[in-house]
């Protein structure tokens, strides 16, 4: 960790602007981090650009960005909207600001939260809109759990190499999906569908030792330690949804 200065990171996720507007107040932040499910398609990045902030914005796509769009080609459109602006779209790539390296990827999950994956995959494919309204243009087919499971493995492999080769002493991971069962709300701890929201990445965190891990997807506030890594999720959630405990100006200093 750097000792001479601190950087104030404001974390928000799951704003779901497709359902209700939101006015961002970033007056205390040095960097705004948006950890996915901001709006569908390119509209989340367009909104982030329209804020006209004089601070960097780090944007990682969630699953909802891809609703009624194609994976992975939507990333090309997201990057085009952000080009030349203060908004930085990260998908298996990094951004270094003042000695802090941000490693960003949507991540998805391995479906192995409760052990074997086949039943969780089957439940997700049957019940989640992700596997009905997102087109996988790599395989020319509707996105399926087998696709996102493979994407997760590729992203995790990239993240390990990225952390290993990082030029910075301070490393912040930004994903949409969660790295630990500890991010699961109590009411979902026996729900096999939770395997589509998080993976058991505690051994990964212990090995590669990021300083902070921001995520979204789970509509409940989380703030805990995995060893020396602070894990934070600060989602707004859906209109009139209870239990999110969203903090509008949540600041994490690194």
From TrEMBL:
<dbReference type="InterPro" id="IPR029052">
    <property type="entry name" value="Metallo-depent_PP-like"/>
</dbReference>
<dbReference type="GO" id="GO:0016787">
    <property type="term" value="F:hydrolase activity"/>
</dbReference>
<protein>
    <submittedName>
        <fullName>Phosphoesterase</fullName>
    </submittedName>
</protein>
<feature type="domain" description="Calcineurin-like phosphoesterase">
    <location>
        <begin position="11"/>
        <end position="220"/>
    </location>
</feature>
<dbReference type="Pfam" id="PF00149">
    <property type="entry name" value="Metallophos"/>
</dbReference>
<dbReference type="InterPro" id="IPR004843">
    <property type="entry name" value="Calcineurin-like_PHP"/>
</dbReference>
């Amino acid at each position: 960790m750097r000792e001479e200065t601190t950087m104030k990171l404001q974390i928000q996720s799951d704003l779901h602007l497709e359902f209700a507007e939101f006015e961002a107040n970033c007056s205390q932040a040095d960097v705004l981090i948006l950890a996915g499910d901001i709006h569908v398609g390119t509209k989340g990045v367009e909104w982030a650009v329209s804020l006209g902030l004089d601070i960097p914005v780090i944007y990682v796509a969630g699953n909802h960005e891809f609703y009624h769009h194609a994976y992975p080609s939507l990333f090309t459109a997201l990057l085009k909207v952000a080009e030349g602006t203060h908004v930085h779209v990260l998908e298996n790539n990094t951004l270094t600001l003042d000695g802090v390296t941000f490693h960003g990827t949507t991540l998805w999950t391995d479906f192995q939260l409760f052990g074997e994956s086949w039943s969780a995959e089957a439940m997700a494919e049957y019940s989640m809109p992700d596997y009905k309204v997102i087109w996988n243009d790599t395989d020319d087919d509707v996105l399926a759990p087998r696709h996102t499971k493979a994407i997760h493995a590729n992203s995790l492999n990239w993240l390990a190499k990225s952390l290993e080769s990082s030029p910075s002493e301070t490393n912040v991971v930004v994903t949409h999906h969660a790295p630990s069962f500890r991010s699961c709300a109590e009411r979902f701890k026996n729900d096999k569908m939770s395997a589509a929201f998080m993976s058991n990445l505690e051994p990964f965190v212990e090995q590669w030792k990021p300083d902070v891990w921001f995520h979204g997807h789970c509509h409940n506030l989380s703030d805990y330690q995995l060893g020396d890594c602070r894990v934070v999720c600060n989602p707004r959630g859906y209109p009139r949804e209870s239990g999110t405990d969203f903090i509008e100006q949540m600041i994490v200093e690194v």
